[in-house]
Amino acid sequence: MRLVFAGTPITAVPSLDALVDDGHEIVAVLTRDDAKVGRSRALTPSPVAARAHELGLHVIKSNRMTPEVTAELTALGAELGVIVAYGALIDAATLTAPSLGWVNLHFSLLPDLRGAAPAQRAVMRGDTTTGMTIFQLTAGLDEGPVFAVQRSPIAEDETAGELLERLAGEGAEFLAETVRAIGSGTLSAEPQTGEATFAPKLGKHDSAIDWAAPLDVVDAHIRGVTPEPGAVAQVDGQPLRILRVARPGGKTDAPALSPGQLCAVGREVFVGTGTSPLQLLSVQPAGKKPMPARDWLRGRRDAATLVLA
């Protein structure tokens, strides 16, 4: 089929590759404008834009659907638009640009977790199962009828970043199969059923850790905001990025600790929560590189009395 592909982050790249490998004609790739990245703040193309250029595809960059973008998309004569994490709304005028409309690969089991951060919110919520939904895009937020659903487990120690990377790979073939079926006319969409929940975009306020919450809640929250916006504790008014934690499991040497209190036992570091302690594996102090938590704590003179806020 003649397709328009819309996507921006690295998680959308496997889907673009899969559609190209499947023999579809990608008449254009729609992605967000170049953004300032890194300490140099140099304007950098999105991962999707970079990959599309490598593939020799026509790229349209825009953070919103202007009349000019809509007119260009309409003139391409695409049969179907395919979206994977584009990061902007497709307005009503653009919805009809491809003759068959747009389909969206969404990383949740709709109508659960509609919105910008479904994988992150699933991990933060402590879910053990999530999945992907391919649905027909409509004017409402992730409300369109569903073509296909695929479930996927969430591992106990999986971060949101790891989950997204895995779903991106699994979703690429899932999307290719579904687009193939839509093109052949063998697949129809069914209305969503069940209670809708929402997954708003994460912000810096989500970085804060409530050490007084139960261990399961603290663990899920840290994994859900990793790598972005990141889990951040406060030490003497300075941020300490919490990169990796683990549940002690059957360990019998985990000490009893108050929320945020730290303790080293041999080569292991524990931090207190509202219930039982959590093992602290790696951290990143302000202005320094990531390091094992034991090395960071060993280097502090106040290690015996230190409490994370």
Automatic annotation (TrEMBL):
One of its GO terms (cellular component) is cytosol. Residues 1-178 form the Formyl transferase N-terminal domain. Attaches a formyl group to the free amino group of methionyl-tRNA(fMet). The formyl group appears to play a dual role in the initiator identity of N-formylmethionyl-tRNA by promoting its recognition by IF2 and preventing the misappropriation of this tRNA by the elongation apparatus. Transmembrane segments: none annotated. GO terms for molecular function: methionyl-tRNA formyltransferase activity. The keyword Protein biosynthesis applies. (6S)-5,6,7,8-tetrahydrofolate binds at S108, L109, L110, P111. This is Methionyl-tRNA formyltransferase. Keywords: Protein biosynthesis, Transferase. The keyword Zinc does not apply. Its EC number is 2.1.2.9. Residues 201-300 form the Formyl transferase C-terminal domain. Belongs to the Fmt family. It catalyses: L-methionyl-tRNA(fMet) + (6R)-10-formyltetrahydrofolate = N-formyl-L-methionyl-tRNA(fMet) + (6S)-5,6,7,8-tetrahydrofolate + H(+).
